[in-house]
Structure formats: C-alpha cells, structure tokens
Amino acid sequence: VQLQESGGGSVQSGGSLRLSCAISGYTYSTYCMAWFRQAPGKGREGVAAISSFGSTSYADSVKGRLTISQDNAKNTLYLLMNSLKPEDTAMYYCAADRANVYCLLRNKYDYWGQGTQVTVSS
User: Fold this and answer.
1) In this predicted structure, what is the pLDDT of residue 114?
2) What is the pLDDT of residues 3-17, one digit of tens each?
3) Which terminal residue of the chain has fewer beta carbons within 10 Å of its beta carbon, N or C?
4) Nearest alpha carbon to residue 57 among 46, 70, 43
C-alpha cells in the first residue's frame, strides 16, 4: 500500500488549498482514511477522517473550514482547506487503516504518506 500526498504550499491567511492523497494497493473493503498534521515542536494531530461507512469527523479546531472527501474511482483522498490561519501551518499526512470506527481517535494507522507542507502567513 502506498499513499502520496500533494497540493501543499504557501498561502496567506484566509486563503485556500486542496490537498490530495493518491492511494494505491489498498484492497481491503473496510477503512479509516484520515488527514493528520504536525507542526514544528508539537505532537501529531488528527484533523479529519472518513470511514468506509461514509461518516466523517473533524477536530474542533478545523470544523467548518476543512472538508475531507474521497473519489473512489480515482483512489484519491482530498482535504479542502478554506479560511486558513497561521496556526494551520504544519506538515500534513494522509493515513489509512483497516479499522472503520473511531477513525479520528485512532493514533495507530497501518499506512502513511510522506507528507506535504502547508504554510500560512499572516
């Protein structure tokens, strides 16, 4: 299984970005797919997740601004990021796991991408 993120970059506060995660080799019928982020000097934080049931969950800090979605035909996971703030600056990772419940609460995911950097300036 391979996950490859893209779409990161530098934007000004209030701007938008869409992150993509191309997924290959994942053949299980159940899944949690999630986006995590890690800022310098801070721990890893789950920001959004989606399960094979179609349910989504978000960290309180991003609710109403970030939207997770998937295109199963393209085997791609997305994170649409609107109204970005400087505190959103971090390396963003996508992850996949065979579990399909408590997706955002899980710290252990089976598969991870390499990450894409998002920098928001004030």
Assistant:
1) 98
2) 999 999 999 999 999
3) C
4) 46
User: Angle at CA 47, nearest 5°, toward 104 and 44?
Assistant: 90
- Give one DSSP letter per residue of 16-72, joined into a string: -EEEEEEEES---S--EEEEEEE-TTS--EEEEEEETT--EEE-GGGTTTEEEEEET
Q: Is the pLDDT of residue 107 over 90?
A: no
List C-alpha distances in Å: 99 to 3, 27, 67, 114: 17, 13, 21, 21
Amino acid at 65: R
> How far is Cα 69 from Cα 34, in angstroms, rounded to an integer?
10
Residue ranges of the alpha helices (H) in the chain? none
Percent of the chain with pLDDT strictly greater than 70: 100
Token pair, residue 121, equals 């300036």
The mean pLDDT value for 38-51 works out to 96
